[in-house]
Design goal:
By secondary structure, this protein is α+β, with helices and mostly antiparallel strands. It is built from ten helices and nine strands. Helix 3 crosses helix 5.
Length: 350
């Protein structure tokens, strides 16, 4: 009897333990479990300790409520310009309704993959290859909007869609590389030409500024030299005016400056001004005295009488403008204006 009572007690304890185990359900954080009673949805167990009717309620597997990441393999997609590209996508989603995710769709992961491929073909089919490669953000936003609307009734929320890779055909990649290489060479040529152009412009600007500065310097130099010469001439003129120089002294000074005209290098002839004859006449009168002015006559000069040398013909000293002196035989005599200078700068009249 004691053994039977002991066995009965053990059976009762096991039944109690089993009943407690079937009654109490502990759900982890960010998880959920659906409960069915007699095959019908009863409730969703929240995280923590939950109680159910043992042997009546059936608890379904855990559903993860955290954000999940699913990477889909490359999907062949045809662009608007009839090029086949392979696109890899990454999808971020989260279960918001455990009941809908469990009863509205059999396998929501597979469903999301298929709808992503379908929507991707629909979006990329309206773009050419260049737009597809440069409009990833636009593609991501359009895919997210479409997938979020389609998966809402499944108790899912698509948080983010990313284009992982876009792989064009190899022939297109080669053509793109050639295009990029040509574009880089074009940019290099343009930059080189621009650099040469800027260099020439800067060089021309520098030469222009240099020429302007040089011309300004020459102008200032000429102005200063002219002012100096003007001051020197004014000083000399003032000194002559203050000293009341005799015309004979001025004529002698004038004749002394004539040899300097022949000192310049490369001169083969030089022109004697017509005033030389006047200076010579004044100088000869200064050295000859009053006797030479009367033509060598010792007698008195009668007022109003014409000297014989004047009435006989033109003077050898002053032939007059535009006239040549002649000898008594009728042959022209050379003047000082037609005689070349000697090496020492004087005029040879012989």
């Amino acid at each position: 009897m004691e053994i039977a009572a002991l066995v009965a007690a053990l059976v009762v304890v096991l039944l109690i333990v089993l009943t407690v185990g079937k009654t109490v359900r502990i759900v982890p954080q960010a998880r959920a479990r659906n409960v069915e009673r007699f095959g019908r949805y009863r409730k969703t167990l929240e995280p923590g300790m939950n109680f159910i009717l043992p042997f009546v309620d059936r608890v379904k597997p855990l559903i993860d409520l955290r954000e999940q990441v699913v990477a889909f393999r490359g999907q062949p997609v045809i662009t608007e310009d009839n090029l086949v590209v392979s696109i890899d996508t990454v999808l971020f989603f989260q279960v918001t309704d455990p009941r809908a995710a469990d009863y509205e769709i059999v396998n929501y992961i597979q469903a999301i993959e298929q709808i992503t491929a379908t929507m991707l073909r629909s979006v990329i089919g309206n773009m050419d290859l260049e737009q597809t490669l440069t409009s990833r953000d636009q593609i991501n936003m359009r895919l997210r909007g479409v997938l979020d609307d389609a998966s809402g009734k499944w108790g899912l929320r698509v948080t983010r869609v990313e284009i992982k890779a876009i792989d064009p055909p190899k022939s297109v990649i080669d053509a793109m590389e050639k295009q990029m290489r040509a574009e880089r060479e074009k940019r290099a040529a343009v930059l080189t030409a621009e650099g040469v152009r800027q260099s020439k412009i800067l060089t021309a600007e520098g030469e222009k500024q240099s020429s302007i500065l040089r011309a300004e310097g020459e102008r200032q130099g000429q102005i200063l030299r002219a002012e100096g010469q003007a001051q020197a001439i004014g000083t000399v003129f003032q000194a002559v005016h203050d000293g009341d120089a005799d015309p004979k002294v001025l004529a002698y000074q004038y004749l002394q400056t004539l040899p300097q005209l022949a000192q310049a290098q490369g001169n083969t002839f030089w022109v004697i001004p017509s005033e030389v004859t006047t200076a010579l006449k004044t100088l000869s009168g200064a050295f000859s005295g009053p006797e030479a002015d009367r033509g060598g006559r010792t007698g008195p000069v009668v007022a109003g009488a014409v000297p014989p040398a004047v009435s006989a013909g033109p003077s050898l000293t002053d032939p007059g403008p535009g006239a040549e002196a002649e000898s008594p035989g009728g042959k022209p005599l050379p003047t000082t204006a037609n005689v070349p200078p000697t090496p020492n700068g004087t005029v040879d009249n012989h």
